[in-house]
Every structure is written in C-alpha cells, then in structure tokens.
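As noted in the main text, all predictions were made from sequence alone. Below is one such record, for Vitamin B12 transporter.
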Amino acid sequence: MNLPVTRLAAALSLAFAIASPSFAQTLDAVVVTANRLPQRATDVIADTTVIHAEEIARSGAGSVADVLQRQRGIEITRNGSAGAATSVFLRGANSNGVVVLLDGVRVGSSTSGVAAWNAVPLGAIERIEIVYGPLSTLYGADAIGGVIQIFTRKGEGGPVASGAVGAGSNATRTLDASVHGSSGAFRYAFSAGHEDADGFSATRPGAFGFNPDDDGYRRRNANGQLSMRIAPGHELGVQFLHSELGAQYDSGAGAYDTRNDQDLDTAAVYMSNQLLPNWRSTVQFARSNDKLGSFTSAAASGASQIDTQQDEFTWQNAIALGADTLQLLYSHRQEEVGSSSTAALSRTRITNAYAATYSARRGSHLFDASARQDRSVYGNRNTGAAGYGYDFGRGLRATASLGSSFRAPTFNELYYPGYGLPTNRPEKGRNLEAGLRYDAGGVQLDATWFRNRLTDMIVSATPCPGMRTGSCAYNVNEATLEGLTLAGQARIKDVNLRASLDWQDPKDETTGKRLARRAKQHASFAADTSMGAFEAGAELQLSGERFDDAANARRLGGYGLLNLYTIWHITPDISLLARVNNAAGKQYELARNYGTSGRTWFAALRYGIR
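Prediction:
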C-alpha cells in the first residue's frame, strides 16, 4: 500500500502536539462487544469505537447508517433515501462480512448476508459499539471486518420519560417517546417511534427503471426490556424489538407504487446466574426475523416475499481465575429461509459452535487469546486470535493482535437457481494489526495499522466455470484489506475537536482492481462548543473517488459534506435542535445513478434528551 508518508507524519505530529501536559487519566468507559463481557476501555486490546445517545440525538440522521458513516473505518452505499437498501463497509470488508447485533441478538438476511440497516430505529438506541477486525472466535461466521452492536435503553433508577417531535426537508416527520427506570427488583425500559418522509427520486435520469417521482419511506417501531432480580446474583429478563419499514423505489414510469415492505423483529429471554463467587453463567434464547416483501405491480406475479428466521441458544460462562478471566461458550444457531418465488431458497442451516477465551493482565502487560470451532453444512471451521498490549504509563499504550475469520456462503450463493453453487466454500481471512493509543488530560489519540488477507472470496464469475455463458457465485478471488486509521479528540479552551483519517487499499488481488464502492481515503472532522444555554457544532465528511463496479470502469467522484447544528436548552429538560446537513448542497453519488439528498434541514423539540 502506497501511503502518503509526509502527510501521515505531519498529521501524527499535529495530533500529539495537541496533547495536554496534564497526564490525569480520563474516566474509564465500559465496553461489552470486544470480549462479550463488560470491560474497562483501558483493558480492551481490540480497536473499538462507542457512539453515545447524545451524539445520535444531535445528528439529525435519518438512519443508523448515516450515523455510522461519520465514524472512522466506515463507508456506506445506499440506493436512494434513508429508507432504501443500504450496505455498510467496515475497514474495506464487504457488507456481508460484518456481524450486526441488537442487544446481543444477531440480525440479518441469510439470503443476502446483509443486515436491514434501513429498518433499525434510531430513537430507541442508547449506544452503538463498533469493534474493528476479525471477531469470528467470539461471534462466528461473517465477522471478517468487525462487529457492530446496537444497544437500546436499559432501566435504572427512578422512572424517566423522554420524547421528541421533529420535522424537516422532504416532508420528514418524526415522533419518539420512551420511559425507563427500576423499582425494587424490577428494571424496565420501553420506547416507540414513528417516522415518515416523502423523500426524493431514488434514481437519476439514465438509470434503469428511472421515475422522476419522490420515493418516500415510513418507519414504525416499538421495543422494550424487562428484568427481575430473583435473588442476589441471579437475574431473569426478556426483551423485544419490532420495526416496520415501507420504502418506495423506482421500477419504471408506471403508475403503480413500487415498494419494499420490511419487518425486523427480535426477541430474547435470558437468565444470568452467579453460580460461584468466581463463576457467572448466562443462558439466552433469541429469535430474529427479517421479512422482505417487494411489490412491483398490482398483479400477484409482481410480488415476492423472502423471510429469514434465526434462532440461537447461547450458554456463556465467565470464570474469574484471580485477576484473569476464562470464558467458555456454546452456541446453537438455526437459520431458516422461506421464499414465495424461489423454492430452492427455502432451506434450513444449523451451526453449532464451541469457543474459549482467556484474558489476563500482569502489571503493564495485557494478554488475550481465543479459539473457536463452528460446525455446519459447510464443514468444520476453526478460528483463533491473540492480542497483546503494553501500558507505558501516563496514558500511552501499544497493542498488537492477529486473528483468523471466515464468512459463510449466503443462501443466494449456494442455492439461487442459475447463480448459486452448493459446492461454494466459506471465505477465509487472516488479520494482523498494530496500534498506538493515548488517553490522558482530556486528549484521546489513536493510530491503527491493519492488514487483512482474504482467500476463497466468492464473486460473480462470468462465464461460470464449466459453462460457456452465464454467471454464478464462485470461490475464485483473493483480496487484501490494508490500511491506516488515525483518530483523535481533544478540548481546547471551550471547543471540543474530533477527527479521523483513513488511508486504505481494499484490493482484489486476483484482478489487481480496487473493491467496488470503497475509497482509498476518507475522513471526518467535527467541532462543537457551548455558550450558556446554547450549543453549536460543525461536521465535515470527506471521501475520495470510488468505483461502482469490480472492473473499475465506472468512477464515482469524491465528495465533501458540511453539516451544521445548534441546540437551545430552553430548560434543563427541554431543548430545541436545529440542523442543516450537506449545507453546501454538494451533488454526489454513493451508487451509480442512485439519488442522494442535497441540502436538508431538520428541527426537533426534545424532552429529557441530553
């Protein structure tokens, strides 16, 4: 990878020059996803980012993907407005190489391998944890680029109610409400939301199926959690989430309302037991449903339905061995697909997995190691990982890790008539990375280098091997995902600053071409300040050129987006948010011939949201 070394050195020098001379350690945050257990951020070796509810609330975003796009190491592509089909690339990995969890419940389509990002409700989210790099030893198949876990609100303390009503460009209307708290042995949290938007044309002139009408969306959701402490150290809980999305799209200039109707449902029952002073056992039964109906004409032949149901039983044991932790895990997951139009996809796949992890700290040294075996119709897959960290003191730490991962073939890649091949094997990944972190005196800095080598990549091969014509999904390619990420945040006088820069080279080694829709450089900068009852901030998102196809023949230009916002705290509990996204009105594309919004505004009156 040919990195701009001079600019890199300058950026590092500037970043460390900002550092305060004070070395008082900042308060530790707690993250869960990196090791499946709550950990202090200072004890986590994996590269991790946490997005909190306040950042989400002031983002004025129309979808979770819009929030993620502003984070380091993440790019998105979307076929239209916030309700349209969306893909998220993490460290250059394909969107089906990212595991997505909702409160510990795995979600996604088994036919496409991609989560329904457009159906996830923003108003219910408490925080989002992003863990970069391979995590197949913890989460199994598909954790090649990383894991993104979305947490909804939890109940704690006295009852707290919150809500917001908002409106904006493209006739956007939003309404959210929630209540959470605890009473004695019970904890509870419930929320509901509704969002409508008239949107804009999903496609541009010249696109296949172009129709100049507006393509809007409607999203409705409800979720809740209820838990009871049945004895000291023993808890029983249930949780659920239901989201309905109706999104229009273009399929020609006819009068029929072409649209996708998508339902996303999760439910789980869990029990956590402190069996011994050093042994905690957690059992969870979970189910997720991803239901997608497409309607292209009034006739029955113009409708199709593809549903994925995932049932998972997990038994997780955390055993404290002095200052160390041994974790033992068993998982049983069943994927079931039903298709109204393609009977060949209506199948079931079962995966059983066994895993162990060990975490230790010895003075300034951090260690972790993990191993896992997944057993399914694609055979037995063994993965392993190891990490090391050294704390130099005064807020400075170095880390290094290596790990293997794999992606299971989707049902489309295995069974879709005329495209899938039942002989397709899982993709395999081997990742090496090193990082340097500084966190002290209100300054946080990160530098991470990674190199992820993928083999047996599944691509659409044309012609299909053994045939003169046609295409099919086939194990043929190799790829390298290599890059360097710099990130930092600091407070200078009354201004909070945040920045991230990504240099990457996601390359198909078989063809020598860059992977589609991924830039070599992308960056994000943000600044905000408070003035009495007012807050104000600005964000800048930058992306280099990309290619819309694997042959690198269709270029997508680079772009820069400027976002501005202000918040007026009318009372301690009531605030008014006003936001302008893409303030300069930049015309750009995330996918060739698909529309993106120009300058938009959004305003919301909020109660109990800080």
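The two ends are 43 Å apart (CA to CA). The longest strand covers residues 472-492. These features were considered when defining construct boundaries for the mutagenesis experiments described in Section 2.9.
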